[in-house]
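Sample A.
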Amino acid sequence: MKVVGFIGPSGTGKSHRALQVASSKDIEYIIDDGLLIKDNRVIAGSSAKKEKTRIASIKRALFIYEEHANSVKKEIKNANPKAILILGTSDGMVESIAKKLDLPEIIEKVYIHEVAKQSEINIALSTRKEEGKHVIPVPTFEIKKDFSGYFLDPLQIFRRKGKGSFQLVSEKSVVRPTFSYMGKYTISDYAIYQIAEYIILNINGISRISRFKVESGNDGITMDIDLILLYGYAIKPLLEAIQKKVKEEIEKITALNIRALNLTAKGLIIQSKQTRK
């Protein structure tokens, strides 16, 4: 197995360029910040960017936690890849990761200044310092549930195909971890209720919400909503439309991942002629 290190100080744009470097070296597997990645998909591991403190983040990236390291080692053993690219902030870091994961010695090292201009590195450093943004080299849908409640944005990379024509090459994700800014991002259950109520009551066929419950987990929230409907509307299509609309809007507004949205029609109300007018 060929092991290559990709090295550069924190915030210089390594994750942004990881796929480019891996492709140029014919490498399918990438190890970055605690994750094992293949073909834009997370295969194993847990992102260091989910940790609440910078120290915990460093430990996660270095695979200090035994259970975490073992899960990645198991997947590497099963896949038996021809080559792996390891990202790190120093020679010592990539060498330590290789050793922790029982990988062969690193035979080649690529440094960020070899693949990025100094002006590009400076921009990346400025973005990290001023906005606390970190890049993960996988599409947003791949890590959405793991980063429920975090500020998470897609970053699409295009290549020019011809005059006025562009081709999507890859999608990465931009996340602002808890440790990168002051304070913690939280949303109360009542705030979620207010958003859901506004969306639902603006859909024709709904009288009111009779019960609302939210259960939070590490990978998102589960919502249970009981509704009183207006007589005269097809119930199944109405509930399906509400489910789709509420899920889309709450995820967009709050960045929360909705694991499940359970709707129950608890009653029907017949509108009076005066109300219908």
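Sample B.
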Amino acid sequence: MTTVRTDRLLLRPVARDDLDALAEVFAVPEVWWFPMQRGLERSETEEFVARQEQHWAAHGYGLWAVVEEERVLGFAGLSVPYFLPEVLPATEVGWRLHPDGWGRGLATEAATAALRWGFDDLGIRRVISITMPDNEASSAVMGRLGMELSLRTTHPARGVDLAVYAIESTTYGEQSARS
């Protein structure tokens, strides 16, 4: 399993040892406001961690714990968005951080590392990101990543509107060459 360092972050696969830290982060209602409108219970965080361990084992990639100065702030990375069958097969880049990490470019930094790894090392050709249209902060990160709106749809289980953004490896490569 891959661990990545960025300028400010350590990104390492989510593991059972992260349960306490993630349970604390995920209990904050703002972290899961979109789409849950509430924080998660510890049992929900336990299920999340178990799913991440299974995802890494099945796919060879997954979500990383985002660590800044020894503190787990949340997660970022790549996953298969099984909850939205109409976009499959697909790889999604996603993130959720404690509000202490908001507004400092950490989500963009972590997601950029995930895209680079997915395109350059894993050979993924297209990556999507899914948000609710009124989640302006996540939509802004998607824009900074060079992603463009590709689909508007509805969450099959929750019935809420979703916006699916996408970026192709060729577009990402062209952007990287210009930076």
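B remarks: The beta strands are 4-5, 10-13, 63-68, 71-79, 92-97, 126-131, 148-154, 161-168. The radius of gyration is 15 Å.
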